[in-house]
Design goal:
single chain; 381 residues; alpha+beta; 2,3-Dihydroxybiphenyl 1,2-Dioxygenase, domain 1; 2 domains; 9-stranded mixed beta sheet; 8-stranded mixed beta sheet; globular; binds fe (ii) ion; metal-binding; pyruvate; metal ion binding
Amino acid sequence: MDTLYDTTSLKLKKEFPDAEDFLPLNGTDHVELYVGNAKQAAHFYKTAFGFQSVAYAGLETGVKDRVSYVLQQNKIRLVLTTPLGEGGPINDHLNRHGDGVKNVALWVDDATKSFEETTKRGAEVAFEPYTIEDENGKVTLSGIKTYGDTVHVFVDRSEYNGPFMPGYKSWESHYNPKGAGLEYIDHMVGNVGWGEMNKWVDFYARVMGFAQLVSFDDKDISTEYTALMSKVMTNGNGRIKFPINEPAEGKKKSQIEEYIDFYNGAGVQHIAVATNDIITTVDHLKDQGVEFLYVPETYYDDLLERVGDIEEEVSELRKRGILVDRDDEGYLLQLFTKPVADRPTLFFEIIQRKGAKSFGKGNFKALFESIEREQANRGTL
Ligand SMILES: [Fe+2]
């Protein structure tokens, strides 16, 4: 398995000169979801998405109030946490939001300095820096609040060699399904409420030292019925990209508004995961039961006129509903899952980049029409 702690990569050049990058961020450390049943969710992410068992914390490791399963696929690490008793902040989070992303943890060299730099620029404290230790070394953590109830945890694990963190033990399972070829998190999108996009764009610029990468307006992202606005924020080395969406007025309810209604506020809308071979990855995920948004076959009729020459056979893309978009630097292939839990909130994007550094703006209309069909089925359009 690829290590997440490959320090040679830290010498990456700064790609976005506008980003102050005072932290700096080395990459995504992990994403922690609060879920109703971590044991079964872990099975789902292993079976359907091809994640591997890594670590576990719970009653058997001396943790009394919760259980957490850690899963990994190449550089993508998920933590699934469920409370064991009644009351408390995790139950409150579940009651309010359903299954969803609580912590977007970022890998830093110094969690205390990251905390100081961001809080002095106005970040609200989620938790003060603290260090935990076991026989494998120590990890320092700190946390700041971002949109909704979501938290950015800063993780310094430079002096740690265990499976995940102190308090966790290795999770050995006899069930180790084949990976799906998911390599790393390409971007994670936040949905925020009406009129709040610029506030959070400003937060990432001012508090985190990010730069704005691309901007869309509501004319870019709308169909006959629904609309949204989106801006993309990136850190200096480009490893962390956070598009921020807000709903926009349309004839019918924006998909962002539907999300906000069911999540009861702002939160992570989708996690985009990169593959080097989207056709093989999508075949594998579909075989394992992952559900994708349906794209009308007419999307492919004039595809090559829209995107120019591509290496893939259009018939192979059409068969799988894979979308294509091009920008000045190349093209990308992408596909979106249906929501992964019961509420129409969090979903995944599978993306393969062939030079393009954008996010599939050219596909938004086809995609949103597909989402509108799902909204109509749910009676929420
Ligand atoms: Fe995306």
